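Lecture notes, part 5. Sequence design as translation. It can be helpful to think of inverse folding as translation between two languages: the language of shapes and the language of residues. The source text, in structure tokens, appears below.
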């Protein structure tokens, strides 16, 4: 009966989000309440679980996500992303423009959320395609493949960070494993797969040429790249140096710097000068950029918090042990099971973030009884969350409408690319699990 209730609640969540079009935050909250009642939790305990679920989830996450959004917005607004695009194109040359645009998407995708990166890079994609008379999809899809992989696999993006916190994974280890998987996934699903799409014609209603800043107004290349990657560099360097020093005071400082919250806060302090004041912006303008960044991700935070409520209801109702016992009986390996559950939710819900967070609530009880490498579990769920983007995913329509494609060609290009990335991600996770 418990599993029927759980399945019914997930179906209700899907119906509320995809059919009735209820806001995901409200849908999660409603389904969590219904779950608690159907699972016969005391009313007072339901209220406590709601508070604990949203508090525990956002308490460990909100600083990283908010500061990451601020960094991404400043990278875009300062022209640093434009400079990164220029540098990669110069490095690769006109004959390797696809690889240049893929590298641009890769670098820009580390600090930027997918939607921000999409809006930022689409004008550049259009400019390059028209300037060199190349097929739009052939140039654009590899770039967006990079953005999608970074968004689904790697911190500091919301879903991977939330999964890191939930499964107590190590950010540096997960990032390193993720990079090993992300690079081949991007290459295969981007430039290599893109070669099969040269004959796809596009008829965009608007020619989105890049409105570029004058070169003199852009930050330098080194400044742009280092500022964008600074959180990753701080965490990685501090983590690598910690075992080297025996002095407790030095180790304490390095461990302090390796904390994601501290690394992000230090990064914002530095880039406020390097990408803000140094480029001629007043402090009030920079703070305005940061305010807009927080507005952009406010709903994302609420959705993540409400997903944490659903997870907490499953734990506090006692259903967690039943789920774990049942899942242990499945013949699928745990990492494959995590990917499968997430992929099915992605098919049903559309949103990669919601699919990943919902799957985490279902898989989490298993981790309390069976050891699963938390770093690889984060990546397995991240890979599953990208599987088969179709008509219930806003990114599907964003790509179709901007690039002026038919439904058939959107499935052939975008949906296939996302599915390739997801399957390659799972294969990469299993290879690392086998070799380590």
């Amino acid at each position: 009966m418990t599993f029927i209730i759980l399945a019914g609640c997930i179906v209700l969540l899907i119906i509320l989000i995809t059919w009735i079009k209820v806001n995901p935050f409200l849908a999660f909250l409603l389904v969590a309440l219904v779950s608690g009642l159907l699972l016969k939790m005391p009313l007072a305990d339901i209220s406590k679980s709601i508070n604990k679920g949203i508090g525990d989830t956002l308490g460990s996450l909100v600083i990283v996500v908010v500061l990451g959004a601020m960094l991404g917005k400043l990278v875009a607004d300062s022209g640093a992303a434009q400079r990164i695009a220029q540098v990669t194109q110069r490095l690769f040359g006109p004959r390797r423009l696809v690889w240049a645009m893929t590298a641009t998407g890769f670098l820009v995708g580390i600090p930027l959320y997918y939607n921000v990166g999409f809006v930022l890079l689409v004008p550049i994609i259009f400019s390059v395609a028209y300037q060199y008379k190349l097929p739009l999809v052939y140039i654009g899809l590899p770039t967006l493949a990079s953005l999608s992989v970074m968004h689904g696999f790697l911190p500091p993006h919301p879903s991977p960070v939330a999964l890191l916190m939930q499964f107590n994974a190590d950010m540096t280890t997960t990032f390193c494993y993720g990079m090993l998987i992300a690079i081949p996934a991007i290459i295969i699903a981007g430039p290599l797969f893109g070669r099969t799409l040269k004959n796809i014609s596009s008829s965009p209603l608007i020619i989105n040429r890049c409105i570029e800043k004058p070169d003199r107004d852009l930050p330098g290349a080194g400044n742009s790249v280092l500022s964008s990657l600074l959180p990753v560099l701080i965490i990685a360097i501090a983590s690598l140096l910690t075992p080297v020093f025996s002095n407790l005071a030095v180790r304490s400082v390095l461990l302090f710097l390796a904390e994601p919250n501290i690394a992000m806060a230090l990064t914002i302090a530095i880039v406020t000068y390097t990408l803000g004041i140094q480029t001629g912006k007043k402090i009030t303008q920079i703070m305005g950029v940061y305010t807009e960044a927080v507005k952009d991700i406010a709903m994302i935070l609420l959705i993540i918090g409400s997903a944490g409520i659903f997870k907490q209801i499953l734990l506090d109702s006692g259903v967690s042990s039943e789920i774990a016992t049942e899942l242990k009986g499945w013949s699928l390996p745990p990492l494959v099971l995590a990917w499968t559950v997430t992929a099915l939710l992605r098919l049903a819900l559309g949103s990669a973030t919601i699919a990943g967070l919902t799957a985490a609530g279902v898989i989490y009880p298993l981790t309390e009884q069976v050891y699963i490498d938390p770093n690889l579990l984060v990546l397995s769920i991240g890979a599953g969350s990208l599987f088969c983007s179709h008509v219930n995913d806003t990114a599907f329509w964003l790509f179709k409408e901007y690039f002026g494609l038919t439904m058939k060609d959107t499935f052939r290009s975008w949906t296939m690319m996302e599915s390739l990335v997801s399957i390659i991600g799972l294969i990469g996770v299993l290879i690392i699990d086998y070799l380590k």
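The translated text above is only one of many valid answers, since several sequences can fold into similar shapes. The radius of gyration is 22 Å.
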